[in-house]
Description:
Strand order of the largest sheet: 3-4-5-8-7-6-9
Oligomer: single chain
Largest sheet: 7 strands, antiparallel
Structural class: alpha+beta
Order of helices and strands: HHHEEHHEHEEHHEHEEE
Strand content: 25-35%
Helix content: 25-40%
Amino acid sequence: MAYEVAAPKYVRLAQTLQGRIEDGTYPPGSRVPSENQLVQAFGMSRPTVVRALELLKRDGWLESRQGFGTIVRGRPEVVEQKDQRGRDALERDESSVQGRFVQVDQVPVPPRVASLLGVPKQTRVLVRRLLVERDGEPVELSSSYFSAGLVEGTELSVPSPLREGQRAHLEARKKVRFDHVTERVSARLPSREEADLLAMPQGEPVLSVLVVACDVAGQALQVTDVLLPADRQELEDTYRLG
């Protein structure tokens, strides 16, 4: 069983600072508070603050300028130009993906997925977990969750690739209509199982793209958690599905 692992303090602080950059609290070109100010403001140790700032610098949100301190660069270009991971997870032909299914099974719904799908805790849902590889190296772990009622009459519970996207399969079999997708991007620590599948060292955070696909009424039809090792990659986005 996979357990969700809470992000360490430095990752949570980095997420908070990233949020302030995105909402304009720290606009591009401005200086972020000093290490001392962040220590006082958040009640965290200096090493925690330093690790958070280094993480944001590594990902392109901040940069150090001699004589000026730490400066906000804004939303990194690689984030602006990132692939629409949600659309890929919904629409890609699984039979053409390089990789393998590591789990297709009924599982207890993870807490955060339960709230998004609108199902009670302890409910069992279907998960399709696909490990995507490139040149023999794992580059993505995609876990899609579906309520039991939505799975009936489909081939989603069959542990073999669909020859169409999950969206097309559900729309054809269940006569539902996907209307929009929301992507929530954050950093978190992978579980031991996730780290092993992605061939990552313990304690290294991953980029999590939590994809919620909804119908026109806003009811979630599926939730997909796409995990991306940060060192192998080239954050809430909403777009219409035509």
